[in-house]
Amino acid sequence: MRRKLAAGNWKMNGLRAQLAEIDAMQEAASGGAEVLICPPTTLLTEAVARAGHIEIGGQDCHAQASGAHTGDVSAAMLADTGASYVILGHSERRTDHDEHDDEVRAKCKSAWEAGLKAVVCVGETLAEREASNTLDIIGGQLAGSIPDGATGHNLVVAYEPVWAIGTGKVPTTDQIGEVHDFIRARLERRFGAGVGRSVRLLYGGSVKPANAAEIFAVSNVDGALVGGASLKAADFVPIIEALNGASDG
Ligand code: PGA
Fold first, then answer.
1. In this predicted structure, what is the pLDDT of residue 249?
2. Which ligand 1 atom lies nearest to the CA of residue 87?
3. Distance (Å, whole) CA 65 – CA 228
4. Is 122's pLDDT higher than 50?
5. CA distance 68 to 160
6. How far, in whole angstroms, is CA 17 from its chain's centroid?
7. Cα 100 to chain centroid, rounded
8. Is 178 a catalytic residue?
9. Which residues sit opposite 44 in a β-bridge?
10. SS3 call for 205
11. CA 109–ligand 1 middle distance (angstroms)
């Protein structure tokens, strides 16, 4: 049985006043689905202090535990704040920081060594989808970005089509289902049926209160990775509640 997961990625948004939104999410977060908020690094310690029912995570980490890497943050440092998750390989990291699968895999290993759970992101661009390369791209990213040693406890995979992030464009439920079924099959083939079936698969890209329930009804969708709509409790709470409802069913 996979526990549903509503994950919020605040990206580079939020000063300390933003943390009040976490308080306003608490009640919904006690309803069955797991809730994760990944605030900017500057807010981690304070977010953990008021986390309540909510898990707190980072948005990236360095592959090494410490060293001469100005401006970077290690997995051990994230764990030291009390964070329990880290998002890795988000398409904005892959694009803005030229991160490739090898680096994401190294970061994932480092996250696991620090005791963090990794939310590894994969997703195709619009050009790749239009060229009918979606499953090849996703298969390559899965193989390259996830180290050996994955379990249902230490790994979550987020399918985030690049063209759906922050655009208001959402794939059809058939398109989401096709990719999620494919990811499930690949994980089962590589890690065995037990592990493959226990890893949670999130959909991400323009998830909003209005489309959440429909997306959560798709097979092999165990929750969502939400950007813009996770910043305000007024938007994220209905998404969490849609997932709580899906947990009951
Ligand atoms: P969005 O972002 O919900 O704002 O589209 C999703 C993400 O990048 O994780």
1. 43
2. 9
3. 30
4. yes
5. 32
6. 24
7. 17
8. no
9. none
10. coil
11. 24
- C-alpha distances (whole Å) from 48 to each of 13, 19, 79, 83 are 17, 10, 11, 7
Q: Which two tokens stand for residue 52?
A: 């309540």
Ligand 1 centre to CA of 241 (Å) is: 18
Supply the pTM of this predicted model: 0.97
Record the tokens describing residue 130, joined without a space: 């239009």
Both structure tokens of 23: 């308080």
Q: Which residue has the tokens 């005791």?
A: 115
* pLDDT tens per residue across span 35-67: 999 999 999 999 999 999 999 999 999 999 999
Tracing tokens 């790994």 back to the chain, one arrives at 155
In this structure, the number of other CB atoms found within 10 A of the CB of residue 70 comes to 4
Which letter does DSSP use for residue 30 in this model? T
CB 158 within 8 A of CB 200: no
Q: Does ligand 1 lie within 6 Å of residue 206's CB atom?
A: yes
Please say if 160 is a catalytic residue: yes
Give the closest residue to 123 by CA, choosing from 190, 179, 207.
179
